[in-house]
Write the structure tokens for this entry.
Amino acid sequence: MTSESNKLLEKLSQFFSNIKIGEIMTSPAIVVTPETSIKQVKNIMKIKKISGLPVVKRGLKLTGIISIEDIIKVLENGKLEDSVKKWMTKNVKVLYEENTLSDFMSISQKYKFGRYPVINNENKVIGIITKYDVISWLFERLGTMYIHDDRRKKILEHEEYTSRLTGELLDNKKISFDFDIDYTEIQRIGTGATKLKSFLKKKGIDEKLIRKVSISTYEAEANVVIHSESYGKIFCWDFEDSIRLLIKDYGKGIENVEIAMQEGFSTASEEVRSQGFGAGMGLPNMKRFSDKMTIISEVGKGVIIEMLFYK
Amino acid sequence: MKLLELLKDGNFEKVYIFDDTVDIKNGYIGDLLSEIMRNAPAESVWLTHQTHPNIIAVASIVEINTIIVPEGFEFESETIKKAKENNINLLKSKCNIFKAAGIIYTKLKEE
């Protein structure tokens, strides 16, 4: 590893210096016994593409380490039939699983070994750590962070919803009211609609209009809870000339919007019906009470209902 | 008609009263929530067999000020709790829904 990449590793590691070695190490480690032949070790290294193996006695007790450097020595001065015991490095630098990444950094700077067995308090080998483990762990971490950031960016970049009714942009920053629909309890239906109602009342909006908006919201909210199997969102924009509503869920969607719009059509369960829901009037009511309405849905992709109410 | 008017002759029993002087101008009967929202007038009583808490949200959206259940029906305790939060009066009738409606209708007509 070059000094440049060492520097980078050092810098990155600062952010994660308290991370435990146990989280980063490769576990279990591939190990050999002192009786294994150098030839076998060479084959394991070749097949597994590794450059060193902890040497263990019964019960995975660490007794040495055999690395590619040792194999080179054998090739120069010994025989491939020799046992590991004869050529292994006995004075092994180890790390404990509770050690941190910063411990790894200081030990590896001091000793310059390529790999360190990780042992527990009973001197039992539980894994192995190399700079490669650290780097891939870091990349994984940074990768996750990047994805999160990327997702956020996407959401932030799509600040507006383009109205399917008017073609204009509905700016997220100008939302007057929003509400998260809890779909887990049927009893909560109407919480968002009643909150929106009192919000609009405070704004001094015409009573008749409020009634139309809240009934439509109630129906849309009920649909999310009863049908979507997903949480949902209510957004309301209070514009000078109109009130705009957007009710979204992320659930199973509507198979055939045309049929769903028909009065009396419902897929609600008996239980839900017995409580007075599922009369197949929800969507027709929204259509009736709003001045303009549209449904965007696809099976498995949730439902977006947009409504417009003129002031 | 004030709500007090209904409480006079013992046909209706208080469950929760937020304000017994509210004006009742109209009434509606039904168990289908969407239908209630579509047709029930504001400032009215609502006679229903539904006793679960969602009726409070429906009532407050369409400004029904009083909900009445007929004989043999009880509001769920959560419904009463929600009625208190939303200022909705709850009554129990001692008659079936037809008779209860008749009594209220007659009183409103007499005004």
In short: Strands of chain B lie at 12-16, 26-29, 44-47, 64-69, 89-93. Chain B touches chain A at residues 31-38, 42, 48, 50, 52-58, 60-63, 78, 86 (CB under 8 Å). DSSP finds five helices and five strands in chain B.
